[in-house]
């Protein structure tokens, strides 16, 4: 009996006295009513964690106690793993949220400077490097976010129609500068039978291709990197990234898709967070592909390839399954704000736009972009201040037409402010969420609060304008 030791109970508190223990509690269980059960909690005994439960029953014509003892080690391990996963998810979401702010600044400054007509060739090349670097950093942030979603089993895709060749060319351009620095030859081969448009998640697809092309760049010091897109007999889009790099040893092929294993299985020094191949594999499966496959010969190069459906039946199948909720795609390059018309020649004399963001730097960047393009605007640092500014403008007889609203802010968040502002007028302003939140639930929350659009930071200037 002395070998038993109580662990902190998850359900009941026990007095810390010499008489306290599982046996004294069992003795007190005679006071239970017939059929009543009591969970006595966890007990540590001989390096094992046991869970004791007791139930008062009738055995023949006498009262008895039915005692159940079970091994709780597996349960505790699952609870610890669940807690750790939740902590990881919270940490990654926080990190990715904070990283989007400097990325937004980098992209906005690059876009603004690119409009200048007085740039030298060297400055244009430097801006191109800045744009590519910010896009690759954004891809890394998306990898972190996807990992957090995978951990919590909340990974979803957003299926929309997109232009296939345009996406491939845009993605391929992103590695051209780096390839040029390494004197690598790039080939983009697109099947003539490939349809102009397809249905999938273009952002996820581009994320996978960027991961694969970035890997090819890391491990190829000379030769060719080739991106090929073909149409299969079953009308699927087959994509492959092939390189003439160092290749992968045969005994390592089975483990390269494991978390944090991809880069360590190559012999050259590499960078990255070790998530790319693992997440890419999960993403292509989520997009409808059977798997992300690899062929490689050590010392000669590697080829990663997959085939995914791109027909409209994909959306129909998703709708029938009911497992996905289609969220409007606000990251497309062709975005039109519903029911909002902005003239080409801005001749505003009074501010008609309100920028709401608790980050001073974000407000500065958006203000600079709007000012250069001839817009007049006001600023607020939280939802409460936004409501006050909006009411103040109404009292002056001036109505704001557009509000660029951050979501996560102190005092009053953007969703709460949107709901309050929308109740003030029968014809409220167009409120656009500009947030680092990219979860489907948060995007839906923006629409439910009365916003007309949800833009995920970093927001390109051509979309913002």
Beginning-to-end CA distance, first to last residue: 75 Å
Which overall shape is indicated by the principal axes computed on the Cα atoms? flat
Q: What class, by secondary structure content?
A: alpha/beta
Mean pLDDT: 78
Number of helices: 13
Structural account:
The chain is α/β, with parallel strands linked by helices and 465 residues long. The chain has helices at 22-28, 73-114, 121-151, 164-173, 176-181, 202-218, 276-286, 313-321, 360-372, 383-395, 414-422, 440-448, 461-464; strands at 5-6, 37-45, 48-59, 62-71, 160-163, 185-190, 197-200, 224-231, 236-243, 293-297, 301-309, 353-356, 377-380, 402-405, 430-435, 453-456. The strands form four sheets. A five-stranded mixed β-sheet has the order 6-8-9-11-10. A five-stranded parallel β-sheet has the order 13-12-14-15-16, sandwiched between helices. A four-stranded antiparallel β-sheet has the order 1-2-3-4. Helix 2 packs parallel to helix 9, helix 4 packs parallel to helix 6 and helix 10 packs parallel to helix 11.
Map the helices and strands:
Blueprint: E1 5-6, H1 22-28, E2 37-45, E3 48-59, E4 62-71, H2 73-114, H3 121-151, E5 160-163, H4 164-173, H5 176-181, E6 185-190, E7 197-200, H6 202-218, E8 224-231, E9 236-243, H7 276-286, E10 293-297, E11 301-309, H8 313-321, E12 353-356, H9 360-372, E13 377-380, H10 383-395, E14 402-405, H11 414-422, E15 430-435, H12 440-448, E16 453-456, H13 461-464
Parallel strand pairs: 6-8, 12-13, 12-14, 14-15, 15-16
Antiparallel strand pairs: 1-2, 2-3, 3-4, 5-7, 8-9, 9-11, 10-11
Helix pairs in contact: 2-3, 2-9, 4-6, 6-7, 10-11
């Amino acid at each position: 009996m002395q070998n038993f030791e109580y662990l902190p109970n998850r359900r009941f508190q026990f007095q810390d006295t010499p008489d306290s223990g599982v046996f004294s509690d069992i003795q007190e269980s005679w006071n239970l009513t017939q059929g009543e059960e009591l969970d006595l909690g966890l007990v540590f005994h001989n390096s094992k964690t046991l869970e004791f439960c007791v139930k008062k029953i009738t055995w023949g014509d006498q009262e008895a106690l039915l005692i159940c003892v079970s091994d709780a080690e597996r349960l505790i391990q699952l609870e610890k793993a669940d807690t750790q996963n939740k902590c990881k998810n919270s940490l990654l979401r926080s990190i990715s949220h904070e990283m989007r702010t400097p990325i937004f600044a980098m992209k906005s400054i690059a876009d603004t400077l690119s409009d200048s007509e007085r740039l030298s060739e060297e400055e244009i090349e430097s801006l191109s490097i800045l744009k590519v670097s910010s896009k690759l950093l954004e891809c890394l942030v998306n990898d972190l976010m996807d990992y957090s979603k995978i951990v919590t089993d909340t990974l979803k895709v957003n299926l929309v129609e997109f232009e296939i060749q345009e996406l491939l060319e845009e993605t391929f351009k992103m590695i051209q500068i780096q390839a040029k620095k390494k004197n690598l030859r790039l080939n983009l081969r697109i099947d003539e039978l490939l349809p102009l448009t397809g249905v999938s998640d273009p952002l996820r697809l581009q994320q996978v291709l960027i991961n694969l092309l970035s890997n090819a760049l890391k491990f190829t010091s000379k030769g060719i990197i080739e991106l090929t897109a073909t149409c299969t007999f079953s009308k699927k889009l087959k994509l492959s990234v092939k390189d003439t790099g160092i290749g992968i040893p045969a005994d390592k092929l089975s483990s390269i898709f494991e978390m944090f294993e991809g880069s360590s299985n190559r012999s050259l020094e590499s960078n990255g967070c070790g998530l790319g191949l693992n997440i890419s594999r999960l993403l292509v499966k989520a997009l409808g592909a059977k798997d992300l496959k690899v062929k490689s010969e050590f010392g000669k190069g590697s080829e990663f390839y997959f085939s995914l459906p791109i027909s409209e039946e994909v959306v129909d199948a998703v709708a029938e399954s009911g497992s996905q909720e289609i969220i409007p795609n606000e990251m497309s390059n062709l975005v039109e704000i519903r029911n909002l018309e902005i003239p080409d020649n801005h001749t505003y004399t009074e501010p008609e736009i309100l920028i709401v963001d608790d980050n001073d730097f974000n407000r500065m960047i958006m203000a600079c972009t709007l000012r250069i393009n001839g817009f007049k605007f006001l600023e607020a640092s939280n939802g409460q201040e936004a409501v006050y500014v909006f009411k103040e403008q109404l009292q002056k007889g001036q109505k704001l037409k557009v509000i660029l609203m951050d979501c996560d802010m102190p005092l009053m968040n953007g969703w709460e402010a949107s709901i309050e502002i929308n109740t003030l007028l029968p014809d409220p302003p167009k409120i656009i969420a500009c947030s680092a939140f990219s979860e489907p639930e948060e995007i839906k929350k923006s629409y439910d609060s009365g916003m007309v659009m949800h833009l995920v930071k970093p927001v390109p200037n051509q979309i913002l304008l």
